[in-house]
């Protein structure tokens, strides 16, 4: 009965009007009355109900479901979530006031293990599915809790991290809440990185690194993870070492790959600018080699970037009979640049596949494929062995019948030239 009385008291703050003799009195509409904000009374009702249900989380979920029809969840969302996470209303900084009523039926008072946090995640899921308007309030609550991390004990932080990871995995939370972890003080004291370890472990445990990557990408967070560390430690090496030692090798590899992708994009952008300015090839080659070394980019990747950059600097003729001549003239000019990055057979094969793909995707170039390959052979960008390997079994399926037919006579000539050079070498011996 105490619980019922609490609810009735809370929902009926307005006193009945007394009759008056001093003229006519208009009754104020209920929606026009300024209702008093009283989170303390709301807190007492919730805590009393949780105390009665005990630690049975299914009973807790049912209580919260039923109470939403009687209590003003929309108005007191922050108080509700403070109680469910910390056991009572939080003061700025994340502390519970000593004189405040509190409950042990909350995340912070629960056992510190994944199974318990999964059970609590179900309580939040059911509550937010039932009362959809709580979604925004819950996201705001988690953002606030992350800013309060320094005010919590290590165990409380660990539980919150596990819970947050689970809720990110099942879609209850949006990855944009992670912005709070980039708070300067949290980063400086190492709180953000330590919290992220527990969070990503539980997130990846529920899903996998690919699902995590998709969620991060949606909110443009995929390239910001190194900001979990102070500026002087924001390197791939430091990130990789820290998270690998913490048992998150897949996250380390993901960040390393993201860094490489970013470096490739930057390289291509700079290359195109250097080409448009007409910078000397020796300067471009020097710049590219420095970037390769600094960002651990392979020659195969670089030759593909150079090919793409070279082909994007021209407005190509739309007439098939004219575009081949235009392409040969243009590519002859850039042959020395491409030759500097085809020092390995695999790089030459990569370039051949890029040429095939480009000629197939751009229909005006379909008849230009063989002419481009012959040009690069004469300019010593490509050599016999990769061309023969491409012809035999390393070509793409895209337009292969057309391109193999174009290359047939040239390949036969290469084979004959190779046989003649071998016989000459034998005679010499």
From TrEMBL:
Official protein name in the record: Basic leucine zipper and W2 domain-containing protein 1
Keyword annotations: Activator, Transcription, Transcription regulation, Translation regulation
Residue intervals of the W2 domain: 257-424
Entries under PANTHER family matching the protein: BASIC LEUCINE ZIPPER AND W2 DOMAIN-CONTAINING PROTEIN, EIF5-MIMIC PROTEIN 2
Cellular component GO terms held in the UniProt record: cytoplasm
Family membership noted in the UniProt record: Belongs to the BZW family.
Keyword match Transcription: yes
One GO BP: regulation of translational initiation
